């Protein structure tokens, strides 16, 4: 294979998933053909492992690595755990009790294989109808704190999230990793957890690094991955803050048009 890349890395929402929140048929065929050519396939997403495993079930891959919860967990497609990094329970307990405007913001957590939320939000259901992954409504002040891969606040606007972000930074400086998967979603992981760090650990075990990879993303939670990859491609529909932060990175088409698959077909002459 003349191409310089050893692996393909892709985010899901706004990137590999189309506007119907599933992997299109052309994308499935493209990923399968890449795997047959010998490329390693990495999915790197803020979604939960259980969710992603279901989304990937239509891809006939013998092997793929799923980096989920923004890098807090990594597993094989069959479910073998390769890496995990949880938020300390004492910090989780404090985060569960942070004050916020409950009419405009909701709190979520990924813990183990489950998703918890403080209030029913019907609009969220459309994003998970293809995987069947769904939240449980709980009172976080009485909820357990173990195996928290990430917590996240979803709001109507970023202005609702900025005070929460600032408060968390004041309370837990150098103890947590904060990022945005979209302008309306503030995500919190243990310190040092990001897609790029987990990918680097996994790739070192395979004998190469991110410089040997082509990566695709659309959110601020992709910034380290896109910066360190041999080629980091940004979606046309990406968060404007990502485009501003990485002005030299190539911008490709829109996720609704399966732009990642078309780009890969051209790059690898499929």
From TrEMBL:
<protein>
    <recommendedName>
        <fullName>Cof subfamily protein (Haloacid dehalogenase superfamily)/HAD superfamily hydrolase (TIGR01484 family)</fullName>
    </recommendedName>
</protein>
<keyword id="KW-0460">Magnesium</keyword>
<dbReference type="InterPro" id="IPR023214">
    <property type="entry name" value="HAD_sf"/>
</dbReference>
<dbReference type="GO" id="GO:0000287">
    <property type="term" value="F:magnesium ion binding"/>
</dbReference>
<keyword id="KW-0378">Hydrolase</keyword>
<keyword id="KW-0479">Metal-binding</keyword>
<dbReference type="GO" id="GO:0016791">
    <property type="term" value="F:phosphatase activity"/>
</dbReference>
<dbReference type="InterPro" id="IPR036412">
    <property type="entry name" value="HAD-like_sf"/>
</dbReference>
<dbReference type="InterPro" id="IPR006379">
    <property type="entry name" value="HAD-SF_hydro_IIB"/>
</dbReference>
<dbReference type="InterPro" id="IPR000150">
    <property type="entry name" value="Cof"/>
</dbReference>
<comment type="similarity">
    <text>Belongs to the HAD-like hydrolase superfamily. Cof family.</text>
</comment>
<dbReference type="Pfam" id="PF08282">
    <property type="entry name" value="Hydrolase_3"/>
</dbReference>
